[in-house]
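Q: Okay, next protein. This is Caspase family protein from Bradyrhizobium commune. I've checked the sequence twice, so it should be correct. Can you predict the 3D structure?
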Amino acid sequence: MSHFMRAPIALLLAGLIIASSGTASRAADAAKIALVIGNAKYPDNEFVLNDAANDAQDIADELSRDGFVVDRQINLTGDAMRQTLDRFYARINQGAVALIFFDGFGIQSNRQSYLLPVDAQIWAEPDVSRDGFSLDSILAEMNARGAAIKIALIDASRRNPFERRFRRYSAGLAPAIAPSNSLLIYSAALGAVVASGQTDHSLFVTELLREMRAPNVSAEQALTNTKNGVVGATNREQVPWLSSSLTTDFSFAGLVAQPPGNKGADRPPSKSEQQKPVCEVVQPDAAPSADDLARDPIIADLTHRIAANASDAISRYKRGQVYAIKRAYALAMQDFDAVIRLDPRDGEALNNRCWTRAATGDLQGALADCNLALQVDPGLSEALDSRGLVNLKLGRTAEAIKDYTDAIQRNPRSSSSLFGRGVATRKSGGDGAADIMQAKSMDPNIAKEFAGYGVTECVP
């Protein structure tokens, strides 16, 4: 996988860039500055995020009506995103209101949220900080440039293809460490993701636009209303995260004397709501055709590398992951077999082959692989999660619950382990609803993923 370097952009050049950036050139003395980014075309994703591009346009239009000088950008590469951010910082004057809207893929790493350009190459955790842009750092720079009010509207709580490549990840976004007088909202709760479908507009941005247009409403109240609107429309399945340290009155449509409060907006669900029974029958996505696989650019690139070097274990391992994610299990097995032949004690490859065998029904072979992976690396939570799936499919619910519980102790944000434990608990005669609901709030597609393994949450 190729890596690219980004040269820092000198502030001396920022003025020259601004002069050629359309509407951004009017920002020199503006009091309200906005950067709107809609990243829709990620080559690694199976479809274009049309809602990201459309929502970015709608947000840019609304902010312009509200008196912001807006720089709207679509489908930014890493270099372009760095240049765009440098332009944005250079336009911030002392005392300004500075706002960033980002719609696309985000990912958390080391308790920070990173916004991803369309050409991000994410295969391991260090790649996140290399190719992504830390929201904490963006807010800190806005503050350092003199912004009196910092606002971040982030629609990036999606389960993205980078997370699926490796089973060790924390879904969703992390809380931002924001400077004082900041206002932030994510489209989903911390650590949670929203189902990424092929839609023209997101529910979150639809609610956000409605509230931004409301007259005589503070910005903080508008975002609180946005959160409540999304919660109500999804029956609490999607709960945006809101953080405010505003000490200055501000509204999108105009200043208000005293922003109304809504202290009950963050009311926790009642015990009956938390224990609401759930049982959903879903159908897994169809496996891709040979033509679909042949057209995949990531598979094509890795295949080219393997053809040039048959001993390239890293490329074989990555291609096996991509095949497994796409449910091309036979091809995934061939790659994992090759990696393990090169290194019989590769715990990660053994875990992935265990997972693949479990999905295809080779349960005894899967159990042997998981056991060996845990002998090689006893702290490998992903192998505990995979073995939990094996035991669940074998009907050994007590063993499955123990494996999933041990995995959750190592990684409390694993939606797979939570869902698996909930299903195992239900199949053993218990409730399991709390685990299942929590897993779905973190990953709305988790039931479909398990359906692909032949596991449903419903007990006859």
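A: Here is a summary of the prediction. The radius of gyration is 23 Å. The longest helix spans residues 50-65.
Q: Noted. On to the next one.
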